């Protein structure tokens, strides 16, 4: 039945996306030490967005409010107009301003149409703090 095929596809896409997000978080130097529960909660709070080629995702010097996981496409990282690197699917970016409470350290531009998962600073910090507090209260 076509509806069942659609459901299967949707299920597959969700499964694939959550797998990608989980791998991306565990691949990131700052996030690989998170507990499994924290990773699951972050995944729960992430929402999908898409942007077209050429869009500026992050502007150097801005206040940062979002951490991203790239699902599809490529982005370029530049600092003071100089190219630092390109980032492909399955990578976290935009984490530094949130983790260090500083302004955006670089500009990130979409080299192609892109699909992203995004989590707000507030949610991100609440998850970190809540699990921190729970841990603390156990001692
Ligand atoms: P943030 O500073 O929040 O916003 C810009 C993002 O670009 C930054 O987080 C990192 O995720 C990324 N970034 C900054 N510098 C580099 C670099 N040298 N190599 C790769 N990614 C970087």
UniProtKB/TrEMBL annotation:
Domain Cyclic nucleotide-binding: 30-139
Top-rank taxon, per record: Eukaryota
Similarity comment text for this entry: Belongs to the protein kinase superfamily. AGC Ser/Thr protein kinase family. cGMP subfamily.
Record-given protein name: cGMP-dependent protein kinase
Organism this protein belongs to: Amphiprion ocellaris
Residues of the full protein shown: 14 to 152 of 599
């Amino acid at each position: 039945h076509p509806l069942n095929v659609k459901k299967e596809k949707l299920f597959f896409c969700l499964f694939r996306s959550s797998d990608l997000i989980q791998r991306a978080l565990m691949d990131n130097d700052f996030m690989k030490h998170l507990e499994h529960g924290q990773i699951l909660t972050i995944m729960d709070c992430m929402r999908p967005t898409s942007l077209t080629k050429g869009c500026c995702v992050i502007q150097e010097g801005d206040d940062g409010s979002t951490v991203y996981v790239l699902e599809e496409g490529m982005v370029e990282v530049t600092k003071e107009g100089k190219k630092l690197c390109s980032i492909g699917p399955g990578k976290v970016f935009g984490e530094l301003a949130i983790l260090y409470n500083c302004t955006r350290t670089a500009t990130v531009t979409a080299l192609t149409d892109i699909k992203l998962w995004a989590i707000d600073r507030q949610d991100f910090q609440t998850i970190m703090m809540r699990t921190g507090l729970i841990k603390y209260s156990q001692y």
